[in-house]
Amino acid sequence: MIPYHLPYKSPEQMERASRAFYEHISQRRSIREFSNVPVPAKIIENLILSASSAPSGANKQPWMFCAISNPALKSEIRKAAEKEERENYQGRMGDEWLKDLAPMGTNEHKEFLETAPWLIAVFKKSYDFENRVKRKNYYVQESVGIACGFLLIAIYDAGLAALTHTPSPMQFLKKILMRPENESPFLLIPVGYPAEGATVPDIRRKNAEEVIEWYL
Ligand code: IYR
Fold first, then answer.
1. For a FRET experiment, which of 17, 91, 111, 180 has its CA 20 to 30 Å from that of 25?
2. CB-based contact 52:63 (threshold 8 Å)
3. Does the C-beta of 164 come closer than 6 Å to ligand 1?
């Protein structure tokens, strides 16, 4: 064990800080229209390191972030994702799902997979290898989910746009990126500047009464 110091904030400072953070984070939106303006790899590395600072079961850090800017790979990923999405939109999703999605204006066309300068493919590792010995990971779903939350916040705070994309099924990512057997695709996140004139659906976020039950 080593000492850890969290800089002290008074309740007044905390109220200001938590309010300011809420005002900042609540402006984040999922973006589906990207500019093709390049973003330096160093920035992507910083974003991924922020994600990788997330807590994880037994500190196993059971994740791998594939940072893709290679245009041929991006095209291949787009083609494979659109093939799955076509089947989703043409029947696999069902009427209720399609109706719920209608306000988002999504469809099987995934141009952003080629336009965005970066795709971050996140993989979860249900187990690891240490010197070719299989080692357990714990709470993998929770850990990788939290790391992706950190990643989305880091991307937004850097001034970039992202989309939490889940083409389904996603096994094609493992094949195209030649990932080892212990890794499974978790999320595909295009990252870049938003396109000029990008729009977002006019959605409402639940208020405090709807999402908090107090037990005082
Ligand atoms: N994966 C599909 C469908 C989709 C599903 C949900 I739930 C969304 O919130 C958005 C999209 C797609 O990317 O179009």
1. 111
2. yes
3. no
